[in-house]
Amino acid sequence: MLVRPDVLAAIFACGVASYACRFLGFFLMRYVKITPPVAAWLHAIPLALIGAILGPIAVNGGPPEWTGLAAAILLMRVTGNQFVAAIGGVTAVAAMRALAL
């Protein structure tokens, strides 16, 4: 396998940029006063990310994805545990695909 120096440099640069964003975010948040609006914004980020990930799946997916989404929602309501809901949703999708439904 040929390793091109320009590709290696691009991968390294992307890694440095990713780390810099994470580090600067943590570093700069030291100086941000956590007011109620900032706290509300920080608490809303996970929900917004989940919506951004699951929205296209719900719209463009098929029966396996819809079943997995329904299973995850149901498990989250019943257990209140995000990990259990995620594993249950993935398991439902895998089962539907294994059954070729």
From TrEMBL:
Q: What is this protein called?
A: Branched-chain amino acid transport protein AzlD
Q: What is the lineage of its organism?
A: Bacteria, Pseudomonadati, Pseudomonadota, Alphaproteobacteria, Hyphomicrobiales
Q: Lipid biosynthesis as a keyword? A: no
Q: Which UniProt keywords apply?
A: Membrane, Transmembrane, Transmembrane helix
InterPro entries reported in the protein's UniProt record = Brnchd-chn_aa_trnsp_AzlD
Annotated source species? Variibacter gotjawalensis
Q: Which residues cross the membrane?
A: 6-28, 40-59, 79-100
Which superkingdom heads the taxonomic lineage of this protein's source? Bacteria
Keyword Transmembrane helix on entry: yes
